[in-house]
Amino acid sequence: MYISEMNKYDCIEFIQRYHYSKVMPKLTKHYLGLFKDNQLVGTLTLGWGTQPLQTINKLFPGLTTENYYEIGKMCIHDDMPKNTGSQFIAKVKKWMKENTEKQLLYTLADGIVGKVGYVYQASNFYYGGFFWTPVYMGADGEKIHPRTSKPLLVENAKLVGKKKLFWLTPEFMELKGIKKIQGKMFRYIMPLNKDMKKVVRRAGWNFNYPKNNDLEWKEFVSKGKYIKMKEMPKFALDVVNLNYRNVHAHKKSASIEDFFG
């Protein structure tokens, strides 16, 4: 198997076929493909999350976006062996050393949908703890990140007579059948040289990995109050109403090179 940069269109099409989430990160710099016998069997995107500088500087004061890439999406063809993910990451690590000046590879495992990051654990990433993050679940089961809830916030603000809202009100959520849920996001990082390995270790990152029994979810019930959920929320991950523009953006912006190059 080997990896190579590939065009954005084909990479996203593969991701949206095999990844559990069709929503794409916006700050993507590299679209990498994993090939076996010249057939595409995996994809991985490198870039940053929604707050690139704040993310790394909070974890490692003094570092900037020049120091790291974040894995945006990673997925493997369903027919590939279970260890393909760790093999892919090993090749990505080598590719980054040869083709970029980045010193860290950062990623998150989405505990909200039951992911604790086993592929990163198998690849010897350092674990940096977790944080709670909120999402909305629409009445149709759509998983809605707060940053994509703007149309709902505009509608909510008009109903309550305010110019702007940052979070949906409890009354509006009840009216629309929307739930607000919190789940854990697990942090992982891979240092690409000895100096960064020392930085990561000094910051307390380690190999004390989370397991499935560390997954937790909480549902909003009233202002400032959440109750623990007995089981993982059942998002309808194929539903992309509010996320439609994001999911189909690569098709509208596709060029001839995207299809043939």
What's the layout of helices and strands?
Blueprint: E1 2-5, H1 8-18, E2 27-36, E3 39-48, H2 52-59, E4 68-76, H3 84-99, E5 104-110, H4 118-122, E6 126-137, E7 143-144, H5 150-160, H6 170-176, E8 179-191, H7 194-202, E9 217-222, E10 225-228, H8 244-252, H9 256-260
Parallel strand pairs: 4-5
Antiparallel strand pairs: 1-2, 2-3, 3-4, 5-8, 6-7, 6-8, 8-9, 9-10
Short structural description:
By secondary structure, the protein is an alpha+beta fold. 31% of the residues lie in helices and 30% in strands. The model has no long low-confidence stretch (mean pLDDT 92).
Question: Could you walk me through the main structural features you see in this protein, from its secondary elements to its overall organization?
Answer:
The chain is an alpha+beta fold and 261 residues long. The protein has a single domain (2-260), classed as Aminopeptidase. Helices cover 31% and strands 30% of the residues. It is built from nine helices and ten strands. It has helices at residues 8-18, 52-59, 84-99, 118-122, 150-160, 170-176, 194-202, 244-252, 256-260, and strands at residues 2-5, 27-36, 39-48, 68-76, 104-110, 126-137, 143-144, 179-191, 217-222, 225-228. Strands 1, 2, 3, 4, 5, 6, 7, 8, 9 and 10 form a ten-stranded mixed beta sheet that branches. β6 (126-137) and β7 (143-144) form a beta hairpin. The longest helix has 16 residues, at 84-99. The model has no long low-confidence stretch (mean pLDDT 92).
